[in-house]
Design goal:
Keywords: Signal. The chain has 9 helices and no strands. It is mainly α. It folds into 2 domains: 76 residues; 67 residues, no CATH class. The protein is elongated and about 55 Å long.
Length: 146
């Protein structure tokens, strides 16, 4: 596909927003998924980051959750790690807390363990201390026992 055509399509996306993204996804895999997210991010900050994640989540479960987090992490460090966790927590309780920690641990060691706990503590007192250590311990037990 010519680069000029791709740019034209992306410019059209700027004018049409997330509803068009959903329609493009329904057309075919080549027009959907994380590649489209990456292209949107390259266009500008308004089309990137957590705002896009929130919109994708509102579209449907397939575009939301830990699968999207994993894909964002694969795109680059700026879209991954604790910064994304902080933004996800700000979006809503369903995207925060121990459920997210458990999913992050399942993704890989770099996103799990004491390093994540340390980063969570640095983010906010509510995410630190005994309240998070106890649930994390229970999550680890479930993960490693299963």
């Amino acid at each position: 596909m010519p680069e000029s055509y791709v740019k034209a399509v992306l410019l059209f996306l700027v004018l049409c927003g997330i509803h068009l993204v959903k329609d493009l996804c329904e057309l075919g895999k080549d027009l959907c998924g994380i590649h489209l997210v990456k292209d949107l991010c390259e266009l500008g900050k308004d089309l990137c980051g957590i705002h896009l994640v929130k919109d994708l989540c509102e579209l449907g479960k397939d575009l939301c959750g830990i699968h999207l987090v994993k894909h964002l992490c694969e795109l680059g460090k700026d879209l991954c790690g604790i910064h994304l966790v902080k933004h996800l927590c700000e979006l809503g309780k369903d995207l925060c807390g121990i459920h997210l920690v458990k999913h992050l641990c399942e993704l890989g060691k770099d996103l799990c363990g004491i390093h994540l706990v340390k980063h969570l503590c640095e983010l906010d007192k509510d995410l630190c201390g005994l309240y998070i250590v106890e649930p994390v311990s229970k999550a680890f037990v479930k993960i490693f026992v299963l």
